[in-house]
Design a protein that fits this description.
alpha+beta, hypothetical protein PF0899 fold, three-stranded antiparallel sheet, elongated, binds zinc ion
């Protein structure tokens, strides 16, 4: 299960931070996940809740913020909605476009006591 390994790396980052800042209890973990990252939020929450038991993050709530799939046109610099397959810029028709968001997957911030 893909989400389980992601949850494990997220938890490792969280516990590492907790150790570095000498906190006793992590209360919230906010992660940012792009729409194209291929992660099912409910599966990730489920996996995280399973593995956090017995750690400093046992009571932490996983908050997932989804980032939209967006791109940019190099010709007119317009922003493009990439949530569907796009081959050219809807503003000027250029094919010189690239993804600028949607694939991110990282811990945005952590709250602790
Ligand atoms: Zn354009």
């Amino acid at each position: 299960m893909h989400e389980l390994s992601i949850a494990q790396s997220l938890l490792a980052i969280v516990l590492d931070e907790a150790r570095r800042h000498q906190v006793n209890k992590v209360t919230k973990v906010a992660v940012k996940i792009g729409a194209l990252a291929g992660v099912v939020p409910s599966s990730l929450t489920f996996s995280f809740d399973l593995i956090k038991e017995g750690t400093k993050a046992a009571e932490a709530e996983l908050v997932i913020e989804q980032a939209p799939a967006v791109g940019e046109c190099h010709t007119c610099e317009g922003e493009i909605d990439m949530s569907r397959l796009v081959e050219q810029c809807p503003h000027c028709g250029s094919k010189d476009i690239e993804f600028t968001g949607g694939q991110e997957l990282y811990v945005d911030h952590i709250e602790a006591e």
